[in-house]
């Protein structure tokens, strides 16, 4: 049997994870001298409360090689094969930790995929892999098919306050200063696995309008297979945005709250989208 392993930045729904026996290896977030395993020791709501109360930005860290080794050993010992899907290797050392753990076993029963994204994209890739597994495909076939989907994935974010991005080192202090002075609400993407500035609207309203227009353009040019709206603590605002997107493209739009690791750099109030295109 092929089993899926992923990391906590996918924020997989617990029911979905349990029904499909998916193993999630957590990243960690540290406030001062106290460390939490994302999704295990701390929920998104608990994290954002601590974030708002903390005077310093928390620190995030990847799982250790041993964390992955322990997970892989258990699954292999049960007679299974593994497809391990993870956050972009250019955003976190998680993928490399998984790779080194896999190399320890010297087996072709473990395949790794660098999603080049995070959050909703990990969900879409896991869903596709599960469909292929249910068709009776081999590990190699599931791996190749799922990996081929990565170029069809798109992520965009816009942020109410870019101070978290600046403090977390995701954009330069110079860009952060300009953004603060001009009240810029940047729209960022993951392009080739890295964070890239796509636009710099000066108001939140304009940023959301531009994000919605971009989604509509993608649907017209490439077609949208799946789409989700992702957010921090601002569910009502994100839901309103999702409804507008649904009206524009005429299809269901999922909702996903992201927690500690992404929230460390995004802050409490932000909205993004994860998209799987048809071509």
Provide structural commentary.
This protein is an alpha/beta fold and 279 residues long. It has 2 domains: 2-26 and 63-148, Rossmann fold, CATH 3.40.50.10440; 152-277, Hypothetical Protein Tm841, Chain: A,domain 3, CATH 3.30.1180. Helices cover 43% and strands 25% of the residues. It contains 11 helices and 13 strands. The strands form 3 sheets. It has a 6-stranded mixed β-sheet, with helices on both faces. A 4-stranded parallel β-sheet has the order 2-1-6-7, with helices on both faces. Strands 4-3-5 form a 3-stranded antiparallel β-sheet, covered by helices on one side. Helix 4 links the parallel strand 6 and strand 7. Helix 3 (65-77) crosses helix 4. The mean pLDDT is 93.
């Amino acid at each position: 049997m092929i089993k899926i392993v992923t990391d906590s930045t996918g924020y997989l729904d617990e029911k979905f994870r349990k029904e499909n026996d998916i193993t999630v290896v957590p990243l960690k977030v540290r406030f001062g001298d106290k460390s939490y395993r994302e999704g295990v020791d701390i929920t998104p709501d608990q994290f954002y409360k601590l974030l708002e109360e903390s005077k310093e930005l928390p620190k995030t860290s990847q799982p250790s090689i041993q964390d992955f080794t322990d997970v892989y050993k258990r699954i292999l010992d049960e007679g299974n094969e593994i497809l391990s899907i993870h956050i972009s290797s250019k955003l976190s050392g998680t993928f490399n930790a998984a790779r080194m753990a896999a190399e320890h076993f010297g087996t072709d029963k473990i395949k790794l995929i660098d999603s080049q994204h995070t959050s909703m994209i990990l969900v879409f890739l896991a869903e596709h892999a599960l469909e292929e597994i249910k068709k009776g495909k081999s590990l190699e076939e599931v791996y190749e098919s799922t990996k081929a989907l990565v170029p069809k994935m798109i992520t965009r974010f816009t942020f109410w306050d870019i101070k978290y991005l600046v403090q977390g080192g995701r954009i330069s202090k110079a860009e952060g200063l300009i953004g603060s002075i001009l009240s810029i609400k940047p729209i960022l993407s993951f392009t080739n696995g890295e964070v890239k500035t796509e636009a710099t609207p000066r108001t939140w309203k304009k940023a959301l309008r531009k994000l919605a227009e971009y989604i509509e353009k993608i649907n017209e040019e490439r077609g949208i297979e799946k789409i989700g709206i992702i957010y921090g603590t601002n569910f009502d605002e994100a839901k309103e945005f999702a409804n507008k997107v649904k009206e524009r493209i005429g299809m269901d739009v999922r909702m996903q709250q992201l927690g500690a690791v992404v929230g460390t750099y995004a802050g409490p109030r932000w909205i993004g989208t994860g998209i799987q295109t048809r071509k």
